[in-house]
Specification:
The structure is a single chain. Helices cover 67% and strands 4% of the residues. By secondary structure, it is mainly alpha-helical. The chain folds into two domains: 73-329, no CATH class; 359-455. A four-stranded antiparallel beta sheet has the order 1-2-3-4, with helices on one face. A hairpin with a 6-residue loop joins strand 2 (431-436) and strand 3 (443-447). The longest helix is centred in the C-terminal third of the chain and has 39 residues, at 310-348. 29% of the residues are buried.
């Protein structure tokens, strides 16, 4: 026989106009199991009162007479987390495995794209493939992360039904777009609060801390979920703030454990293992803890149906717009600064269209470099006839034969024209000189044997290879 208190509560809510679904959701949030609720809903004596319509803003009578202490709340969260541990772990691991596979695929595709980019025949295709791969990677990662989060929320909220990993992902799939919307609005409101000197951001953060569980538990999205969360927190802001602050403090203490272990043992494997363990368990426990806050507030106050009007939304829309301004302002400021500096440079003559080298300019510069290298041969031969060698062994353009009065000036002029990409080498019996061409990423080399040719590699001996 179900608990008489449960029967009395259901009868009371039916008379107040709540539907069976609303009552079931409220009871499940209060810790009742679905089979107990269904048994209590079974008609007695073959009759059941049909519920009238509910007026907006009407409250459901509370199930819990008082709110728990911080210690009791952590006890509830740990008990629920322990009960749902394997399901939560499975939900957490699934997107990580997908992302690891996706990263491996993106790396493989990236190597292929880079290979195609350096092939003149497929360069355009390589760039297109690279852009497409990165775009697909980020989109898929965003969807996977959001789906993992909504599935985790559904797995926690569906604890009374004991739903598994697959069912959690099925339910979470339909909440992805609402999850994104609530997250975006909440982030913009928080940014706007920061613009209003930090304290409003803290107030908004506490007010809207339950919005995601309202999304999965009451199927409300956007500003409606935020306002509903605010209604639950109303009258208990200080208590909720302390609850959340304690969660943050405990989380930080847990996160420093790997650093303490590494400091004491210098064991990198233990450090990485503890970090991985914290990464897998702490976020899901924090959500379970937040769900327990939601469940206790809802059980204490009853299901509050917030009236979502334009007047109530307007202040938060304004703050969200401030947050949007704070988000995009650096981009536009950087763009404006870049345009302004560019304009000033053009007006002052520092930069103008004529200073932009064209393909024809690069070809002309390469011809000039080659001619300068050919001309230096005569000076090198004069040096050889005088010294009976090409000077002491050197791989620098600043020493040996290359620093002699006969050649030094020409070497400096070539190096200047080649933008500092001149390389020189001499072993006394032979010499070689090489510059980087402008028109294509190859080197032009000359040596004492009369060779003059393109090379892919930088000069490494006293002879062109």
């Amino acid at each position: 026989m179900p608990n008489q208190e449960l029967h009395a509560y259901i009868d009371q809510q039916l008379k107040l106009g709540l539907s069976k679904d609303q009552i079931t959701t409220a009871l499940m949030s209060g810790g009742w199991h679905l089979d107990q609720i269904n048994q209590a809903f079974a008609p007695q004596n073959g009759t059941q009162t049909a519920p009238p319509q509910t007026a907006p803003g009407q409250d459901v009578s509370p199930v819990l007479s008082s709110l728990p202490s911080v210690g009791a709340l952590f006890g509830q969260a740990f008990s629920l987390y322990k009960e749902r541990f394997w399901v939560l772990l499975g939900v957490t691991l699934f997107p990580l495995l997908i992302i690891m596979g996706l990263v491996a695929l993106a790396i493989s595709g990236g190597f292929l794209a880079f290979f195609l980019m350096f092939s003149s025949k497929f360069a355009a295709g390589g760039i297109g493939l690279l852009i497409g791969l990165f775009g697909a990677f980020f989109i898929f990662m965003a969807v996977t992360q959001a789906w993992g989060q909504t599935a985790l929320l559904c797995a926690i909220a569906g604890s009374p039904e004991k739903i598994g990993v697959i069912q959690s992902y099925r339910r979470g799939w339909h909440k992805i777009h609402s999850f994104w919307w609530i997250t975006l609005i909440g982030a913009l409101v928080a940014l706007g609060g920061l613009l209003l000197l930090v304290v409003p951001a803290i107030i908004f953060g506490v007010w809207f801390s339950l919005a995601l569980f309202i999304l999965v538990g009451e199927n409300l999205g956007g500003f409606n979920a935020l306002l509903q969360s605010k209604e639950y927190v109303k009258g208990h802001w200080g208590r909720v703030f302390v609850w959340l602050l304690c969660l943050i403090v405990v989380s930080l203490l847990i996160l420093i454990i790997p650093f303490i272990v590494f400091t004491l043992t210098k064991n990198a494997i233990a450090y990485l293992a503890l970090q991985a363990l914290c990464g897998l368990t702490l976020p899901s426990f924090a959500l379970v803890y937040t769900f327990c806050i939601y469940r206790n507030l809802r059980g204490h106050k009853g299901q509050v149906i917030a009236v979502s009007s334009a007047g109530k939304k307007a202040p938060f829309i304004f703050v969200a717009l401030l947050g949007l301004v704070l988000l995009v302002a650096p981009f536009f400021f950087g763009l404006y600064t870049s345009i302004l500096l560019n304009t000033q440079a053009r007006q002052s003559g520092i930069f103008n269209d004529n200073s932009i080298p064209t393909a024809a300019d690069d070809l002309a510069a390469d011809v000039r470099l080659k001619n300068m290298l050919y001309a230096i041969r005569a000076s090198a031969e004069l040096y050889y006839n005088k010294s009976n060698s090409y000077g002491p062994t050197t791989d620098s353009c600043d020493t040996g034969m290359f620093a002699s009065p006969e050649i030094a000036t020409d070497v400096q002029n070539i190096n200047h024209a080649a933008h500092g990409t001149l390389w020189c080498s001499s072993n006394g019996k032979q010499y070689a000189m090489q510059v980087l061409l402008n028109s294509k990423y190859v080197h032009w080399c000359i040596d004492s044997s009369g060779a003059a040719k393109e090379e892919d590699k930088r000069l490494s001996s006293s002879k062109c290879e």
